[in-house]
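Reviewers of the previous submission asked for a worked example of the structure-prediction workflow described in the proposal, so we include one complete record here. The input consisted solely of the amino acid sequence. No template or homolog information was supplied to the procedure at any stage.
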Amino acid sequence: MFTDLPLHELRSYRPSLPEPPGFDAFWQRTLAEAGNHPLDAEFTAYDAGLSLLHTYDVAFSGFGGHRIRGWLLAPRAAATDGGGPLPCVVQYIGYGGGRTLPHDWLLWPAAGHATLVMDTRGQSGPGRPGDTADPVGAEGPAVPGMVTKGILSPDDYYYRRLYTDAVRAVDAARSHPLVDPDRIVVGGRSQGGVLALAAAALAPGVAGALIDVPFLTDIRRAIEITDAEPYAEIARYCAGQRDRVDQVLHTLDHFDGLNFASRSTVPALFSTALRDAITPPSTGFAAHHHYAGAKELLVWQFNGHEGGGLHQQTEQVRFLQKLWA
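From that input alone, the workflow returned the following structure tokens.
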């Protein structure tokens, strides 16, 4: 069944921005603190058995100077035919997963792009194992999962570290000689989608964004209308911390994708799905409506959180072909 407003209402749904006082100053300070740590990007050749690709095991310094892992893949032929450095897609990962293995990230090298895949600190799963720890202990209580880790303070919140990592991943991609620093696109789905939104707003020089069924957008509405994970982690937390709900919402406002959408001006391709109970479609429409740059939105009428799947990827390839034309 459809999980949200009727489509004609979604097309005009534009909630007020949940922008807290000092939002820009908070992120300027956060990124300035990260900049005090040398990026120290390392690219170690990795034998994945993929003979048509350059494959590198990546490490760079993210929030707090913590080492973040990743992969860099680039097509050998395109990188050595004298055509110069390649456009690059920096990819962010959905909730509960890590970077897994290089052969899981072949789309963009097959399309002639380099791709840098950022591992997600502190997250891993049986289907998508990760390799990056989150060395910061949470201040205050939390429920199982990552969404409430440090949620009583914007400074302590887990996603402050993760959004900062996402910006530094763009810097890491830009530092490699195979990558054209003027043709870097950020992309991801669900949690990866909001990381792409944040990076599009916070990382200078990004050329475009691919934002699929984004998590952590229009958060106040999402936690009211869905019981699905991972938003349910916030609801469970607030059920126990009844006297701290306003404090929780104040923290979350610093990380709401709507505020980054209103500050992002690069061309973007969005997607949402009308049967998505995990990231309700109204929240994706809200991000698209607030987005300040040139934008397109693909709506998948009969799909859930999987969104457009391979069909969305086909449209992404076409979108970047037009972007680089």
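The beta strands are 42-45, 53-61, 67-75, 86-92, 114-118, 179-189, 208-212, 268-273, 295-300. We consider this example representative of the routine output the project will generate in years two and three.
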